[in-house]
Model the fold of this input.
Amino acid sequence: MSQPIWTPDALRSEFSSYHGKAWRLVEAQHLVSTRKIVDSLDEQTLLEAILEDAKPPVPPRCRHLDYLLATPFRYQAYPRGSRFRRAGLTLGVWYGAERPETAAAEMGFYRLLFFAESPATPFPANAGEYSAICARLATGSALDLTAGALAADQALWTHLTDYGPCQALADAARTAAGALLRYRSVRDPDQGSNIAVLDCAAFADPAPTIERQTWRIYLSPSAVLVQREFPRRDIEISIAAFAVDPRIAAIWPDQML
Done:
């Protein structure tokens, strides 16, 4: 399939308003990672300040944001490309999902992919623990890749491994002053929707909402279990469901049967 040419002018005609919430999973240790190497809260505050000074500066448009929202925009050296961000020195993208279950499925896939690409590394005995944070979004320059003219190229926006067309679209969207992309998750068995924030101005509030959830992700050779602590929710995703991705299938080819 040939790659469509979406010019900035053409994309502006597809802009729509978006108002909603997006969930993102972060490692639970983001709040306590430095606590175990200091003796007091004062020492932890000092250590956190030293670490903050050593990090790249937050871009001016994002300096009003909490670090959980601003972090993807401050690191412009990006070692590996993602769906809407090229590798190298590139502008940041904040990824989220409209439902926490979709965000958990996405994290479960990438946790599995890590071990698929490191076959000598055994599965961890314990679950990985994550905090689900929620951000409010509001913008008049959103692009919905699941609707309108853009939906005609759905096969490109949902390709499992080739992110080239998506990255080209994101480049054109930025040139057109687009702030947000809505697209279908290819990792969530329920095909929920993901959000890619291209511009910090899309955040309606400077910090995540008070809503928080704790999720645990268990890996086994046959399934990925994502479990929410409260309210309790268990979701089991078979390796076969993820093995439609050739990177997973290459490690567990029997799951394709």
